[in-house]
Amino acid sequence: MAREVLISDTVIELAEPARIPERTFVGRAEELQMCRVAWGVRPDGTDFIDSDVPPLSFRLEGAPGLGKNEIVYEIARRLGLPLYIIQGHEELTPEDLVLLLTPNPKAEYSDSVPALTLRASPLSTALYTGGLFFFDEINRVPERALSPLASVLDGRQYIYSAMAGINIGPPNQEARKSFRFCCALNPSLSNAGHVLPEYIEQRTLPVIEIDHPPFEDLHQIIQASLDPSPDFLSAFTEWYQQEERADVSVRQAIALMNYAMSYEQQVGGAKLGVLQKVSSFILGRKS
Ligand SMILES: Nc1ncnc2c1ncn2[C@@H]1O[C@H](COP(=O)(O)OP(=O)(O)O)[C@@H](O)[C@H]1O
Ligand SMILES: [Mg+2]
């Protein structure tokens, strides 16, 4: 696929899609359904519904490690479409959402190669190619950096580069129809003063809350990702019930089991005892 394109007479290099981990996805039927309805995806997840109703840009909200990214990955896996991701952070600038100017290492050896390359951001690339786009941790981004999103999310479906003085949007109807936007945030950050500006909040709906999965799903995720012995899985179940650690996230539970399994193998000890021992330094103290 040609990664270099000409937009308004400007040569631009497109971004690479995200590499989605191959993984067995567990549960979350209701959350997936809510996302698919927003995006106009068929119930089996494999294609878009042929409709003129514009898709909605859903927002996943939940504490870290509960599976927000994984839900977006699963939707992209099922659709078989490239997924482009921007990771939100405090230093992000408006132009980071659009175009980046980077030195071209090949220019050193040739006069005919320009010294600088214009690179499309993951968002610009998704807009141009009609890909799926995921803005992770969007509430960590300073408010002014989000301003280019207004034209992306209000139906105009393009983004303006102040640096190049051009709009980047879909070059054809096909790309226009398949572009999708979603985002995720951890709402506890918002209590610390990081709130989304009202116009972004209203353009990233519906809000889909991602809570702790039921224990059976957690059990199955651990089984699928670490393949522990049945004894170790039983010990985990026992530990979970005994300690009443319903606050443990999926990511923490995987790390805990990973560490406990290695610990048992290398140091030894009874499985439940090992879990009790290592949980204090994997999970910290119970709050
Ligand atoms: N439904 C799920 N099926 C399989 N693995 C999951 C699921 N949800 C979460 N995980 C695993 O838990 C970990 C954290 O998930 P992630 O999506 O990164 O959380 P978040 O984005 O909410 O911080 C990942 O390693 C992921 O593989
Ligand atoms: Mg995440």
From TrEMBL:
InterPro entries assigned to the protein according to its UniProt record, in alphabetical order: ATPase_dyneun-rel_AAA, CbbQ/NirQ/NorQ/GpvN, P-loop_NTPase
ATPase dynein-related AAA domain location: 60-189
GO molecular function: ATP binding; ATP hydrolysis activity
Protein name per Swiss-Prot or TrEMBL: MoxR family ATPase
Pfam families hit by this protein: AAA_5
Regions crossing the membrane: none
Coiled-coil residue windows: none
Record organism: Nonomuraea zeae
Source superkingdom: Bacteria
